[in-house]
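Appendix B. One record, verbatim.
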Amino acid sequence: MRILSGLQPSGRLHIGNFFGMMEPALKLQHEGDAYYFIADYHSLTSVQDGKTLRGFVRELAIDFLACGLDPDKCVFFRQSDVPEHCELSWILSTVTPMGLLERCHSYKDKIANGISPSHGLFAYPVLMAADILIYESDIVPVGRDQKQHVEVTRDIAIKMNETFGAGLFKLPQPRIQETTAVVLGLDGRKMSKSYNNTIPLFEEPGPLKKKIMSIQTDSTPVEAPKSIEGSSILALYKLVASQADYDAMVADHLNGGVGYGDFKKRLLQGVTDYFAPFRARRNEIVADQGYVDKVLAEGAEKARAVARKTLSRVRDAVGLG
């Protein structure tokens, strides 16, 4: 079973990235042949400063390794170190119907939130299809909001197989961890850099406390019971707390007599404790920057060997070369 997943270096990673993508990916590296990449080609749609992008790439690599990614159990690489992704993307684009891309929710959502439309943003699902298909991926762990892009990948693969020969591409399947597919942010919406409602993965103690204490709540008095429906505090606490501690917070919501400030303090402690081991590992990696370069270089070599074989087969099928 080959597993493929990528993460954009478009800013500081937040706990939504960790629970929505990274944690499931880290578990899957022990279940199959895992390929994980830093999607810097994709990030060009939103990050258009070279120095900034390189910094984001490096920080993402450090964070992923700190959280438990094991380069001995998976292939970890930078997308732009495997330019075959872009050639395959162009080939796929020649059979991709415009209507298929026009129906993609992600593009519409980004435009609605003020992101300037570009061809790259519109064609994002085609490059994502190339990312997936070039490694003959079986499983693609994604957030619920990215499920449609895996479905688009399957549609494009079917079109390629119909046009250039059955069996040219296998059809990947999305895998969604339903309980943590969407992580709520500080304002109750999905945690996203686009909404400026994130909790950075390795935030310093002072700013971390400030962010968590700023979580939006209603005006229910301390002594009154509080709603547990749609609570960002409870949703986030469930991710980092033991079942017993989470159940205790739910009971305190329902019984009343405890204020939101107390709940936020418990959440702060939960987040701090949960990520403490990862923070310690991150400090070790930062002290040995050559380690990151070595991991990415070795990963790119392994990934490109597979990508070249796939692209060679596709070029032959479509009549190139």
